[in-house]
Amino acid sequence: MYQPIWNNVRRLRAEIPDHVIIVAAAKSRTCDEIAAAMDAGISVIGENYIQEAEPARRSLGCRGNWHFIGHLQLNKAKKAVELFDLIETVDNIRLAQTIDRHAATVGKMMPVMIEVNICREAQKNGALPESVAELARSIALLPNLQLSGLMAMGPLIRPEDLRPYFAAVRRIYEDLHGMCLPGTNIRYLSMGMSDSYKVAIDEGANIVRLGTAIFGPRL
C-alpha cells in the first residue's frame, strides 16, 4: 500500500546531495504514511499544526527528529517546546521570548530558526529581511534558545523564478553567519518544497521541506 512512498523517498535520497536534510512535510498525512516515509529512510518529520503533531508523536515520537514548520501561535508555544526538536518559524521577539520561557520550565535548550518573509507578502508570516539581524541579536540573548539558521518560503510562482528570492535569503544567511553571535549555531538554511527544492538546493539550501514529492497528492 505504501510502496509509492518508499519509491519516492529512495529516488529523492539518491538525487538530493547527502548534506541536504529532507524534512517530510506531513501536514494532513496519517501516522501510517509518516511511518512508511521513516521506514524508507526519512529521519526528520515536519508538522504545521500542533493538533496533528500530538497523535503522530504519541505513535512515532521515539523515532527521528521533529521540526515545527507552520505558523506558531503564542498559546501553542508550550506544546511546541514539548513536542518538537526544532522550531523553524520564529518571526518576532515576543514569540521567541515565549518559547524561551517554556523551554526554561522544562529544562530544554530549544533550537530555533528565523522565518524570513523574503517576498514581503502581507498575507505571509516571517520577519522582513531588514529585521532579521536585530531579531537574531535578541534571540541570541535568550538563555534557553539556540538560533540555528533561517527558513523561508517563496511566492507562488514558477520554480525557476524563485531563484532570486532564494539567493536573497542565502545572502542574509551568510551575513547572519558572519555576525558570530555568541550562543548561536548558524548551520541550517531551510528553503524549497516539492516543486522548488532543486532550485533551492542550487541556491544553498541544506534543508528542504517535501510533502507531495514524498507522499503523493493529498486526497
Write the layout of secondary structure elements.
Layout: H1 3-15, E1 21-25, H2 31-39, E2 44-47, H3 50-60, E3 65-68, H4 77-83, E4 86-90, H5 93-106, E5 110-116, H6 132-140, E6 145-152, H7 163-179, E7 188-190, H8 197-202, E8 207-210, H9 212-215
Parallel strand pairs: 1-2, 1-8, 2-3, 3-4, 4-5, 5-6, 6-7
Q: What do these coordinates show?
A:
The chain is α/β, with parallel strands linked by helices. It is built from nine helices and eight strands. It has a single domain (3-215), classed as TIM Barrel. Helix 1 (3-15) packs across helix 2 and helix 4 packs across helix 5 (93-106). The longest helix is centred in the last third of the chain and has 17 residues, at 163-179. The chain is globular and about 50 Å long.
Quick summary of this structure?
The chain is an alpha/beta fold.
Largest sheet: 8 strands, parallel
The average pLDDT score comes to: 96
Gyration radius, to the nearest Å?
A: 17 Å
Poorly predicted residue ranges: none
CATH topology name, in short, is TIM Barrel
Based on helices, strands and strand pairing, what is the structural class? alpha/beta
Biggest sheet strand line-up: 7-6-5-4-3-2-1-8
Number of helices: 9
Strand residues, percent: 15-25%
What is the CATH domain class? Alpha Beta
- What share of residues is helical? 40-55%
Q: Which architecture name does CATH use?
A: Alpha-Beta Barrel
The beta-strand count equals 8
Integer count of domains: 1
**Coarse shape:** globular
The CATH superfamily bears the name Alanine racemase
Order of helices and strands: HEHEHEHEHEHEHEHEH
N- and C-termini, Cα separation: 15 Å
